[in-house]
Specification:
Largest sheet: 5 strands, antiparallel
Number of helices: 2
CATH topology: Thiol Ester Dehydrase, Chain A
Radius of gyration: 16 Å
Number of strands: 5
CATH class: Alpha Beta
CATH superfamily: Hotdog Thioesterase
Helix content: 10-25%
Order of helices and strands: EHEEEEH
């Protein structure tokens, strides 16, 4: 599996509107939850990398290390900004920052690793074939 044209220092960015489903409403305060933020970071990272992979490959998350520094309310926009920090064989290391769109304040920052897998082989492994 090769990563065509994905290089160190490639950057990506995605704007997302925080919805109720992304919040901690279950505790009575409706702000972006940490698990939802991590999920959005993972989804955004995978979508970006997928553009550089063949149809038989995808990536899976293998490591996350993020802060959660500021709250974000429902209907506020966040921007996920990522940069490819390192590519070693099938492992891609990313540096990511999440900011609030309205004032560019830091919501989160950290690192995320993804691993390129063959979809069929990975599916067989999951099923135990």
């Amino acid at each position: 599996m090769t990563v065509n044209k994905l290089k160190k220092d490639n950057k990506f960015r995605k704007e997302i509107v925080v919805e109720k489903k992304h919040t901690t409403s279950h505790i009575g305060i409706s702000v972006l939850s940490t698990p939802s933020m991590i999920g959005l970071i993972e989804k955004t990272s995978n979508e970006y990398i997928q553009k550089y992979l063949s149809a038989v490959s995808t990536t899976v998350g293998t490591f996350v290390n993020f802060t959660h520094e500021n709250p974000v309310k429902i209907n506020e926009k966040i921007i996920i900004e990522g940069r490819v920090d390192k590519i070693v064989d099938n492992k891609i290391k990313l540096k990511i920052k999440v900011v609030r769109n309205k004032d560019r304040s830091t919501v989160s920052r950290g690192t995320h690793d993804r691993y390129i897998v063959n979809k069929k082989k990975f599916s067989k492994k999951v099923r135990g074939d």
